[in-house]
Amino acid sequence: MYSVYLNGAMGFLMAVTMCFCIGDLAAIVDTPTGYPFIQVFHNSTKSYTATNILVTIFIINLTACCVSALATASRQLWSFARDKGVPFSGWFAQ
To answer: I need a surface site. Which of 34, 69, 77, 93 has the fewest CB within 10 A?
Structure first.
């Protein structure tokens, strides 16, 4: 349970940091990249290389989180189906 609180606090600090780094909101929203968070990274680092590294780290972490969530959901569905807790449990429990 402490990890939830710790991650919540770090997420809040990340959101506050992003708010301070945004700068001109109109320029961020009308970015040519189409993704405002990439423009925030570029405005903060003033380097395309650093921006690409930060975006790559972000995308890898996001992909890993999605894979983890999908694996957790499928395992829970299989467990509930094995115990006959969901409709069509015979099909899901295969």
So the answer is: 34
Q: For residue range 10-27, what is the model confidence (pLDDT) as tens digits?
A: 999 989 988 888 888 888
- Supply 5's token pair: 């609180």
DSSP state, 83? Answer: T
Tell which residue, 73, 72, 78, 76, has the closest CA to residue 94. 78
pTM: 0.71
Other Cβ atoms within 10 Å of 72 Cβ, number: 10
Residues 6+ apart with CB under 8 A from 39: 27, 28, 31, 33
Q: How far apart are CA 24 and CA 16, in angstroms?
A: 16
What is the 3-state composition of the chain as percent helix, strand, coil, each rounded to the nearest 5? 80, 0, 20
Tell me which amino acid residue 86 is: V
**SS3 state at 48:** helix
